[in-house]
Write a structure and sequence with these properties.
There is one protein chain. By secondary structure, the protein is α+β, with helices and mostly antiparallel strands. The protein has one helix spanning 2-31; strands at 44-49, 53-59, 90-93, 98-104, 108-114, 119-121, 132-136. It has a four-stranded antiparallel β-sheet, with no helix packed on it. A three-stranded antiparallel β-sheet has the order 5-4-7, with no helix packed on it. The radius of gyration is 21 Å and the shape is globular.
């Protein structure tokens, strides 16, 4: 009986360990959707083409310099693997915060403000000139 109880206890401990690993893995994957090429709720997206077309550069946190960032997305989307810096034609704010964009690194140069829910094309002052973005608390 004592041997059977030990086996049962060991089996339960193993099942709990596996369950904990699966929960941690699922939580990490769900929390890390930024920069995956798909614009989800709570993200700010910069699109390669006008009218939210082509690949998207999706952000959940500030990015002070787009020089090393790429548009990613499904195979065949316009702009895929192109550098985001100075190559954005439209945006969409699916976040609850207002986002600011700058035409220079570190939110310098011309600054634009995009409130929650905003969807639109970049104006002539910002089209293909955006280099940085941050959100406001």
């Amino acid at each position: 009986m004592n041997k059977a109880l030990r086996r049962l206890t060991a089996g339960c401990a193993a099942a709990v360990s596996v369950g904990a690993v699966l929960l941690v893995s699922a939580g990490s994957a769900a929390a890390n959707t930024e920069r995956n090429g798909y614009l989800e709720t709570s993200e700010f997206g910069l699109y390669y083409n006008s009218d939210n077309g082509g690949c998207v550069f999706d952000l959940m946190s500030s990015d002070w310099n787009f020089f090393n960032d790429l548009f990613i997305g499904p195979e065949g989307c316009a702009g895929r693997n192109r550098v985001t810096n100075d190559d954005t034609a439209s945006y969409r704010n699916r976040d609850t915060y207002t986002w600011k964009v700058g035409t220079e690194a570190n939110l310098a140069g011309l600054i634009g403000s995009l409130p929650p829910g905003y969807v639109g094309n970049a104006s002539v002052n910002f089209k293909n000139k955006i280099t940085s973005a941050t959100f406001l608390d």
